Amino acid sequence: MPRKTPTSLVAPFFESRGWKPFTFQKQTWKAFSEGKSGLIHAPTGLGKTLAVWLAPLAESIAENNFKGCQVLWITPLRALALDTQKSLEEPLESLGLNIEVALRTGDSSSYQKSKLNKKIPYGLITTPESLSLFLTHENFRDNIAGLKMVVVDEWHELIGTKRGVQTELCLARLKSWFSGLRIWGLSATLGNTEQAKDILLGKLDEDAVIISGAAKKRIEIETLLPSEVDRFPWSGHIGTRLARKVITKLEVEETTLLFTNTRSQTEIWYQELMELKPEWHDELAMHHGSLDREERNLVEQRLREGKIRCVVCTSSLDLGVDFSPVSQVIQVGSPKGIARLMQRAGRSGHSPGGVSKLICVPSNAIELVEFAAARDSIKEKRIESKWPLLKPLDVLVQHVITICIGEPMVADDLKREIKSSYAYHGLTDEEWKWVLDFVMKGGKALSAYPNFRKVVELDGKLTIEDKKLVQIHRFNIGTITSHQMVSLISQSGRRYGSVEESFVSRLKKGSSFIFGGHRLEIVRLRQNKATVRKATKKSRGEIPIWAGGRMPLSTELSHAVAQRLQSGNSDTPEMKVMEPILKIQKEWSKVPTDKFLLLEQTNVRQDCHIFVYTFAGRSVNEGLGSLIAWRITQMHDYSIHVTMNDYGFSLTAKEWLPFEESDWRDLFSTEYLLKNLLACMNTAELARRQFRDIARVSGLVLQNLPRGRSTPKKDLMASSRLLYEVFERYDPDNLLMHQAKREILEGQLEMTRLESTMDTIQKKPFHFQKCPRLTPMAFPLWADRLQAHMHGEDAMTRLEKMLQTLEAAVD
């Protein structure tokens, strides 16, 4: 009798659905049966989940062995876990398998957590944090003794993050336990798949494979065009003007996901749609990370059942959750990245052979160019890469303590295991010695304090004896740090969700605000809990503002925008609408591209403005603008104000600003770059703030306490600031302090990209243009500066006057 192949073993499931396996799925099953690890890179909705899940099932069927835990499934978001569980359970009945797939996330009940600590079923879905927590239990290794496979879902979302590094370290631990363990990553929309595979698997595995989805998923992209476009646009000024056109699109399709880039925009757009279509009250919903978990679960369930016309949402719904009824996706505002746009588009037509329908809604006219450029990039397969994060020592310190709790280790063995991961393959002996000294003594500055002596060496092995310390460490495992949140709870006990303390603390008793589609007012605020009630006032109320709302334009999309402008073609609907704007720009100056550096000088009243167009993204322009301004002030003793956006930056001063090529060549020099940046950006203060998160991850300060308590934000800030000052004075070479400065430079300022941008600029020709008035490209930067320095009504009055002047000059 011929031996059954993996394909034939799982065939009953496909036959029950009337499907045929894709080639890449068969390739995955074959590679797994040969003992290989790998990375599956395919668009959303092509069946990556089935490709990896059916592989161990086929092997278990062939061996007739379903004992113990054989598959660990790591997902980056709790929100994905429930949907993933349903996807994994779906084939079991068709294959005649009576096995269990369990969940273990931060949302799991105490009973479920306790149950899984004792016995783990065939499949376990968990998060990086929960997997780390499992590693602190001494029986975990025995509970997964039959482990065959680890799957890391949405791997592209973890690369380059501390959660991704935490995952790498957990995988290194599992590989040291089980020599034949097969690890598979699932990823979409990545430009550097080869490196992504190496990051996932640690040391280069020559047998590991990359499998690409052979089927191409078609994406149909349409942009909603405004009836008329202001010839001098500024950020967000179109806003909800296109809401009625959006309504028309919602009327055509049954289920739509409307993505915004921020939670504040989600609240605004939900309110706008409700006002335009109040009869859709039961058909519209909202989904973002600050809403209560039960509210989000209800929305997700109604989505699966096809009972919602439209969900206004953020990235909380753009990872691999399978909502089959979704027929179209609407993107409000620029996605800032090609991969992100593709990821969101993939939420529609989420089935093999399905077509993704994407409708783009600009929030300002310049974003029309971004949408056209993104379409070009998707067609030409120019997608952003995700770069690895190397040697974050705060994560390593936490992991070492985690490992020593679960299983005593010889220091050299633990170092060897850690260095097998990609993130720490370059860990030096000096750095390892510092880590050990830190976890055992608290380092040079804290050695006198018993609380920081956590790890001890007994019988040649590192271990932890203090049971109270073990409990506290378990409560603080993880790398996610967030702003202090305040829970919103009604007087009857209903939970609405949470907002940032910085927003709610400035509201007075009786003040109203909009949250989750409800108009609420503050009854009282105590510690991290705000009691609210339905507002009685008819005012619209404020919309909460959350931190982290601005995303920089990616390098790839920046270049694509510059190429679009350079071509001058009006071959798309978006570029035809942009024609009158670009015509004025061309007549009054030049259309900026990345082939040359355009600098415009314009005087407005008593102010001298220099506008520099780099196409480098907001983060780089922030650092670059501050650096250039600082270098000028070293030569001329007067103040300069910097404004930046994704396309460039502006310098504003009351006095003359240099406008000769020789001056600017020197200003863009990379000589003394790091030293100058440290001087001009007040990185000492920025590093102090960044150190708070590092102190939390490394266990120097405690964010979570037993019995559900948390440390108040002011105490966290005070403790971390005090520690920073202690290190600064008594241990200036402390590696966590150096890490804080490095994270500021790379995270906030994108130091590598900034230096590369300056090198590129030096090789370009410069074009200097003195302009008698603001050009269309300069106007958004001028408007941003005005709004930042004047009260709302005063700023709008000035804006309107300037617009009238500029329009008159055109006519």
Helix percentage range: 40-55%
- Calculate the mean pLDDT score and round it: 87
Strand content: 15-25%
**Uncertain segments:** none
How large is the count of helical segments?
Answer: 32
What does the main sheet amount to? 7 strands, parallel
Query: What is the 3D form?
Result: globular
Structural class assignment: alpha/beta
Strand order of the largest sheet: 3-4-2-5-6-1-7
Number of separate strands? 27
How large, in whole angstroms, is the Cα Rg? Answer: 28 Å
End-to-end CA span: 86 Å
List keywords for this structure.
single chain; 811 residues; alpha/beta; 7-stranded parallel sheet
Structure notes:
With 811 residues, the protein is of the alpha/beta class. Helices cover 45% and strands 16% of the residues. The protein contains 32 helices and 27 strands. A hairpin with a 3-residue loop joins β23 (641-644) and β24. α6 runs parallel beside α9 (162-177), α15 (366-380) packs across α22 and α16 packs across α18.
